[in-house]
């Protein structure tokens, strides 16, 4: 069965760092684009960072460019989101997503809370 298990969320002060991880199982990881979304209270879910299955090219939301770095380890079926210089507006529930457009399949993790506050 498909699983995306996120970890690494928590409470951090402004300017601090967190590293989110997503462990995938139950599907052919190498064939899926991986991404992180976030949803703050009262706001729509938005994509934060995206990494393609082929070549590992990444895209980032303008709001996190230069602060967040997304990477994938195809040998371990994991993706990691390194978040630096965190701001209060980064506070949200962060979700891991796996997507294969050719197959028309997408999977979501359960989410992990990130709170940036002094």
Sheet having the most strands: 7 strands, mixed
Quaternary organisation of the protein chains? single chain
Separation of the first and last Cα atoms: 40 Å
Continuous helix count: 0
Radius of gyration computed on alpha carbons: 14 Å
Report the sheet-strand fraction: over 45%
| Average pLDDT number | 96
Extract low-pLDDT stretches: none
Q: Rough shape? A: globular
Could you state the order of secondary-structure elements as H and E? Answer: EEEEEEEEEEE
Could you tell me the number of beta strands? 11
Strand pairing plus helix content: what structural class?
A: mainly beta
Helix coverage percent: under 10%
SSE inventory with pairings:
Elements lengths: L2 E5 L2 E3 L5 E8 L7 E7 L6 E6 L6 E3 L7 E6 L4 E6 L8 E9 L4 E4 L3 E5 L2
Parallel strand pairs: 2-11
Antiparallel strand pairs: 1-3, 3-8, 4-5, 4-9, 5-6, 7-8, 9-10, 9-11
Give an account of the 3D structure:
It contains no helices and eleven strands. With 118 residues, the protein is mainly beta. Strands 2, 4, 5, 6, 9, 10 and 11 form a seven-stranded mixed beta sheet that branches. It has a four-stranded antiparallel beta sheet with strand order 1-3-8-7, with no helix packed on it.
Summarize this structure briefly.
By secondary structure, the chain is mainly β. 0% of the residues lie in helices and 53% in strands.
């Amino acid at each position: 069965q498909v699983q995306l298990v996120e970890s690494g969320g928590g409470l951090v002060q402004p300017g601090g760092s967190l590293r989110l991880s997503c462990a995938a199982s139950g599907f052919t990881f190498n064939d899926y684009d991986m991404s992180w979304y976030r949803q703050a209270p009262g706001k729509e879910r938005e994509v934060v960072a995206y990494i393609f299955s082929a070549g590992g090219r990444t895209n980032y939301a303008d709001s996190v460019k230069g602060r967040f770095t997304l990477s994938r380890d195809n040998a371990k079926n994991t993706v990691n989101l390194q978040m630096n210089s965190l701001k209060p507006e980064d506070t949200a529930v962060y979700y891991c997503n796996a997507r294969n457009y050719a197959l028309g399949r997408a999977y979501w993790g359960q989410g992990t809370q990130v709170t940036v506050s002094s």
